[in-house]
Write a structure and sequence with these properties.
Helices cover 35% and strands 23% of the residues. The strands form 2 sheets. A 6-stranded mixed beta sheet has the order 6-7-8-3-9-10, sandwiched between helices. A 4-stranded antiparallel beta sheet has the order 2-1-4-5, covered by helices on one side. The protein is of the alpha/beta class.
Length: 259
Amino acid sequence: MEKIVAKNLQKIYANGQGIKSLSFSIGSGEFIGVLGHSGAGKTTLMRLLCGAVFPTSGSLCVMGQDMSTVTRTELIGLRRRIATVYQNFNVVPSLSVAHNVLLGKLGSSSLLTTLRSLLWLRSAETKKIAGLLYQLGIEEKFYERCQELSGGQQQRVAVARALFSDAEIVLADEPIASVDPATAGLILKLFFELKNSGRTVIMNLHQVSNAVQYCTRLIALENGELAYDGVPTEFTESEAYYRLIGKKSLALTGEEIYG
């Protein structure tokens, strides 16, 4: 089942940067890694998919909703079905780690249920949140306020929040940029497991080795256009790989596309 369909999708900003023309479709249970240098259009694509910005031309359909004609009410409903992990974490500093994770289900619960949960966590919620924090190596931070955490720890809270949600699509913009390599592997494994439940994961990444190891499909962007769309293991043999990697030095930990 197709979750996302783009046809000649464009998003042009005043400075000319953005998405020039993209056509692709993404189905249920895919783990898509998006690669490209800074300015290639990775973040713009994420913003288009969650309805933070809208197409300049072409078409984008997300879970049956035309993003060019979506109403405010329809967009609110659509965002309840999408979880997003941002580069700047977007945690609530004054709330505890547990309550920040709980906010992952904010869109799928009633206001009354959400308010009740913020005052009193049910045992099932506590158990699930504690399990996620344990997997991410910050179980001891359960009751701490997010403002007391390091940047890497806040990133893990943001990841736990996305994993805790019942979202059909999970968008992650460089979710492992602020963590150590061991934690990065844990996070990627957790996202990989989401696809087994039929959820779709789309993740901006900068290291090719991680993308090839964990993703089921790669999309590489270059100057706002599609440079590669296909099997991860074939990417390293493609012309796009040599063009993109050749523009920057290789990282010591593997081929890396900076951006």
